[in-house]
Design brief:
Cytosolic phospholipase A2 catalytic domain; 7-stranded mixed beta sheet; globular; PNPLA_dom; PNPLA domain-containing protein
């Protein structure tokens, strides 16, 4: 009697890798980039722009059945078969098509200036790619960047300057943002009011704002707005931090809502390739690039909803700076870093468009 061949996890993973490679070869017509990827049994990191543990389900191709790509990721990870030759192209093969895409901005407090820098870079150097953006999502400060893209995408520098003005005001106070005579909520309202037009039809089903229901502690992603005030209240709610923002949480549809970052700090659309953006190093596609002195084998990661963050000193400092604005020079550095990271992404993904003679 012929013995049946034992199919081990390793053989299953090899077969799966072969299938993925074949599909990538068909889907992506771009030449393979030289990705510098460190592989371990459970993670990858790309030195180009600090990504880690790529979410295949949002990059590869649209899901055809529930949990299919979660199972794929689990199999790939457990079998230790992350390979340099497949991870790089896998990251961009969905973006390589001509279909619609989405942007998603994480919550990050005063480091939202990084988002403005990214938008500036994408608008300047990736015009063709930006024409394909049909949705833009954000939580907390990320929702303000998403709103800026929706209504005034060319005013990123103006938005940066308004944040600088607010930071300057906070620095002049004895107790900073916690001073009794300062209400962050009211200052934000004045700024938001400058950027939201009377006609908000452009935001319907294009702008997605992440909110947290304070009572039920569940997330709500709003994309339909009944009025201009409703939209402004949604943005204020997404940025509202209890005890820090002052006053009381905004009321929307009869319920109080607070910072969307508590429940979904980096919204992702399963049906659209989503370019995720964050000033914290981790799993976002456009993000700072941090390295541990001991290499990727000693890196710890913290998962916050759909976002994975590196646990390191740099991110801890950024966390403090998000709530308590650093000096103006550092904020300017974040803005410029956002522009550089956007250009790195465009260059690596093959979407960079520069005028002849421009410095790269």
């Amino acid at each position: 009697m012929e013995m049946e061949e034992e199919i081990t996890d390793e053989k299953k993973s090899d077969r799966l890798v072969n299938v993925v490679e074949k599909k990538l070869e068909i889907v992506s017509n771009r030449r393979e980039k030289d990705y510098d990827i460190n592989s371990t049994s459970d993670s990858i990191s790309c030195k180009q722009y600090g990504t880690a543990d790529c979410n295949i389900s949002t990059i590869l191709y649209p899901p055809r059945k529930p949990n299919a790509f979660e199972q794929l990721e689990k199999c790939l990870r457990s079998a230790c078969c992350w390979k340099k030759r497949i991870v790089g192209p896998m990251k961009f093969c969905r973006l390589a098509s001509e279909g619609d895409i989405a942007l998603s901005f994480s919550g990050c407090g005063f480091l939202g200036v990084y988002h403005f820098g990214v938008l500036q870079g994408l608008n300047r150097d990736g015009k063709s790619l930006m024409k394909r953006v049909k949705r833009c999502a954000g939580a907390s400060a990320g929702s303000l960047a998403a709103a800026l893209w929706t209504f005034q995408p060319n005013d990123t520098e103006k938005g940066f300057n308004d944040v600088i003005k607010m930071a300057t005001e906070i620095h002049s106070l004895r107790f900073g943002a916690l001073s009794p005579n300062f209400a962050l909520h009211k200052s934000l309202q004045k700024i938001i009011d400058l950027y939201i037009p009377e006609d908000i039809s452009n935001a319907q089903d294009r702008l997605y704002i992440s909110l947290t229901d304070q009572k039920r502690n569940i997330n709500r992603l709003i994309s339909r707005f009944t009025s201009r005030n409703y939209l402004i209240d949604s943005l204020l709610a997404s940025c509202y931090i209890p005890l820090y923002s002052g006053s009381s949480p905004p009321v929307i549809d009869g319920d109080q809502y607070i910072d969307g970052g508590f429940t979904n700090n980096l919204p992702i659309f399963e049906e659209l390739p989503t370019i995720t953006i964050s000033p914290f190093s981790g799993s976002a596609i456009i993000a700072p690039n941090d390295y541990d002195s001991m290499g990727p084998f000693r890196e710890w990661r913290l998962r916050v909803g759909t976002q994975e963050l590196k646990v390191n000193v740099q991110n801890m400092i950024r966390g403090a700076q998000a709530l308590f604005p650093p000096n103006l020079e550092i904020l300017k550095n974040y803005y410029e870093m956002g522009q550089r990271d956007a250009m790195k992404f465009l260059l690596d993904a093959g979407f960079l468009e520069r005028q002849m003679g421009d410095a790269v």
